[in-house]
Amino acid sequence: MAHINYYFSTISPFTYLAGTRLEEIADKHGAGITYKPFDIGAIFSRTGGTPPPQRHESRKAYRLQELRRAGVKTGLPINLQPAHFPTNAAPSSYAVIAAQSAGGGDVGALVHSLLRAVWVEEKDIAEDAVVKGCLEGAGFDPSLADSGLLVGAETYAANLEEAVNVGVFGSPFYITDGDERFWGHDRLDDLDVHLAGKL
């Protein structure tokens, strides 16, 4: 069975714009997914990137245009300047790690719910109540937000190191068994074609 390692940040707008297309593509091809949330700020500093607030004004303006256009193309609503961005992505990432380990719910739905909370619902995913609500909505025990914090922190840090070592430099980033790498929500069609054996 094909497998996809999915590296992402729970505060990335471009990850939000991927929607649940990764899960749909994986289902179509019978592929498994391992969710690997990581610290996007640290990835930028480790791989030569620049965090959005530190970019030149022309790059900031272009990013906003890209986000607006991508929202229209994907049919996903997006607030270009949400009230709680940036925020601490660690608590939500720990919850994803705990949920994946516990099983019983829909991890893809959880990830999208957290991203939607930031980019549509004006919620702060650093807040315990928000994370618990997303867990419950995706079919998980909301108490997962309170358990496994040490393991979550260790895995979150390990995901960052692994991401750097395998060539990840942004979010979302998808890597298949054969080390085919796809960066960005707009490369999901390429991933689909690759999994079909045509690329």
Span between N and C termini?
18 Å
Number of domains: 1
Q: Strand content of the residues, in percent?
A: 5-15%
- Architecture per CATH nomenclature, i.e. the level-2 architecture: 3-Layer(aba) Sandwich
User: What is the number of strand segments?
Assistant: 4
Helical fraction equals 40-55%
Write the CATH homologous superfamily: Glutaredoxin
Rg: 16 Å
Helix count from the secondary structure assignment: 9
Largest sheet: 4 strands, mixed
Biggest sheet, strands in spatial order?
Answer: 2-1-3-4
Report low-confidence residues grouped into runs of 5 or more: none
The secondary structure category is alpha+beta
What letter string, H or E per element, gives the SSE order? Answer: EHHEHHHHHHEEH
Shape: globular
The level-1 CATH class:
Alpha Beta
CATH topology: Glutaredoxin
Mean pLDDT: 97
Descriptive notes:
This protein is α+β, with helices and mostly antiparallel strands and about 200 residues long. The chain has one domain (about 5-195): Glutaredoxin (3-Layer(aba) Sandwich), CATH 3.40.30. About 50% of the residues lie in helices and about 10% in strands. The chain has nine helices and four strands; from the N terminus they run βααβααααααββα. It has helices spanning about 15, 20-30, 40-45, 55-75, 90-100, 105-120, 130-135, 150-165, 190-195; strands at about 5-10, 30-35, 175, 180-185. It has a four-stranded mixed beta sheet with strand order 2-1-3-4. A hairpin with a 4-residue loop joins strand 3 (about 175) and strand 4 (about 180-185). The radius of gyration is 16 Å and the shape is globular. The two termini are about 20 Å apart. The mean pLDDT is about 95.
